[in-house]
Amino acid sequence: MSATIICKTRWCWRTDLAEFRGLTERERAGFLLVLEWFENFRLRHELPAGREAAKVFWKTEVTREGRERETWQLEQWGDAVQWYLNWLSACCESGADHRSLPERLRSAVHSSGARRGLSERTKQCYGAWAARYAKFAGSEHGVMQVQTATRFLTSVVEDEDCAYSTQKQALNALAHFFKHVLGVKEPVFGVKLRDTGTRVPVVLSSAETPKLFEKLRVQEQREARYELAARLQYGAGLRLSELVRMRVKDVDVGRGTVTVRRGKGDKDRVTVLPQSLREEVASQIEQVREVWARDREAGLAGVYMPGALARKFRRAAETFEWFWLFPARQTSIDGESGIRRRHHLHGKVYNEAIKRAASAAGIEKRVTSHALRHSFATHLLENGTDLRTIQDLLGHEDISTTEIYLHVATGANGLGVVSPLDRLVELKRMNESQKIQFPGQNVVNPVFSGVIGQEVGDRRR
Which of 98, 245, 373, 374 is catalytic? Predict the structure, then answer.
């Protein structure tokens, strides 16, 4: 199994750049700087090495709006990228493997995860941890040592101060790597995970939530299209992945329900479609129908379908009911199949729009799209909905997960606590309101005067 990692013929662009004689030392340093930048960008976005990745990098990082570049910088960086593309062509002609160690580990984990039927999200997560582990190990020999994995996991637990769930992710990823890539039956990592305790979620108030929606509406046009998605996420309590992967067939406007397919834990559930959104969602479906029709006229491949369904319903990907409720504006290459098709709204792009709107609204909290889901649950609890119902709507497996909202809810159904300072202020306000002002004379509240008079009489006796 380790043959997927070790390749007999492997080229390294860093080594070849250092030995390339056609550059001065100054030029070589400039090439190294931009190519490290490009490689980190490509690996972060899981883009295959090639001209398409270079175009995306150039448009997204180098020439994006708001970045001023000198002419000599653009010329030097363009030469560096062209040198890299020529180097890739030479690798291809020689049959050499150009991938770095982190990239090869990520690819090996993706392949083994696909064989075992892991979800795309899990494969991405495990692959990212494998790539981090490869950078930590530094060599092909090091990544295959259990002792190296133990040192890596220890650094994650002790040095990075990660949440318990993050530590567990890293442990599971490396266990998968050693078992199903390297073929080690029972790897034993001598590391003890540290429980970091419970963290309360970020919740928007009833006043902050409409402010966020308003900013999404009034900002530039590219932001306005996210308003309906944000209101639906809040109104139905959806996770980010559940929102962006929503298909037309999963929304029943007539019954007022939203069906979440293959949610967390590969489970389906039904949640509420807000009455106030039914007309807008119906209008969104009609707009999406036009996009779907244009794709069909252009002969574009159908949308992505899970493996088993794609094999069972071969033409379903081209039907309207399987189309995305929030499709991407542009088509893109499917990373798994290499086919150009229309993907759904990108979760990261949507999440960044939420952050910008929260900042523009003056909300001084760490707001992400998941805060809308937290707010959905908290506001339901404050309005009297029982925990068991909220658990079903959110899709929590354990009621203890839902109980976290008891710590952030306010009012009779939440904390239900009034600070003693507020009681003192209220008593003072009541006392002052019961005073009667006469010309030249203050008449004290008879209730308090009776108590004071009794105390004075007790002292005299």
Answer: 373
